[in-house]
Amino acid sequence: MVEKPTVKTKCPNFSSGPCAKRPGWTVDVLKNALVGRSHRSKEGKERLREVSTRMKKILGLPEDYRIGIVAGSDTGAVELAMWTMLGPKPVDVFGFESFSKGWIKDITEQLKLPNVNKYTADYGKLPDLSKADPKHDIVFTLNGTTSGVKVPNLDWIKDDREGIVICDATSGIFAMDLDYKKLDAITFSWQKVLGGEAAHGVIILSPRGVKRIEENEPKVTWPLPKIFRLNAEGKLKPGELEYSTINTPSMLCVEDAIDALKWAESIGGLRGMISRTQENLKVMEEWVSKSDWIDFLAESKETRSTTSVCFKIKAEWFVKLSDEEKAKAAKKITGLLEKEGVAYDINSYAKAPIGIRIWCGATIEKSDLEILTKWLDWAYETVKAEYVK
Length: 389
Description:
This protein is an alpha/beta fold. It is built from nine helices and twelve strands. The strands form three sheets. It has a seven-stranded mixed sheet, with helices on both faces. Strands 10-11-12 form a three-stranded antiparallel sheet. Strands 5-6 form a two-stranded antiparallel ribbon. The longest helix has 22 residues, at 366-387.
């Protein structure tokens, strides 16, 4: 029997969204938030310009790429891109977990596009990305938040492509290298790697992406919600993304995002964020390599996510249980950790295979993950004792 650990994690928040706040965060960082003021005031626009400028600088975006805040978290940003950009060409869409497969459903059942090629894979795997046709538009997810599987590189996207590429990057951006020249619309939410607040989405547009919206939006045959209409008078004017948002953003959330970006700058910017994430994954890899009961859900190390790390329980006694019994046993393991105040919200996503999911993004401390692995072993052995006599 594994002895119960005595040292607890300093921060027990390992949810995959909203994710843990940056180390040292307190509500005091919001004291200068522009609450009670219009986001269209001079000061409000300055705050919005600041958050956009800091994001662009840290990410190292090309000078001619546009970035700004939109409504509805990452989901709203992806939908905005699809509803305003798709239509002129056939679409190749790749799905390998809950959200990416949801984009397939929206493209085929909501937009009802006539020429769609669907490429899918089960949890733990990637679809065949080589099927992407450079003459078509492409929609894909960079990192499967619910599957722990990432797209390892963008070599499969042609530089001389004719179509545009929409990338849902929400649990990967700020933690993984991206060749921006391969992408025309990149979406994410502050609530993931930055540990910001939820509800707001961010969209990055290449010049090709801007051109597609300007040319395509007036031609769409489906109803277009107002919060999706980026361009005014047929043009996406300077500032329309960066500091003149379609909807009203929360200035509290903007202040919080600025704080997160300042923290990112203090640890070395993008390289520092990526390094922390990779070091966190190493802790989990070392733990798994010594374990006889847990394994990664991702079947390949090359496609293993460094942020939303998903696990399956491989112990023989567990595998023999019914799905209902597996779900109960897994929840008992995570429930013990929650009761002890060691780890919150680490159950697998509801539609994903039964197991455990631990956020390992840059706002998580490596030392807390090292402590958590010991508690995981204890909780597992405690629950195992109920089933194996």
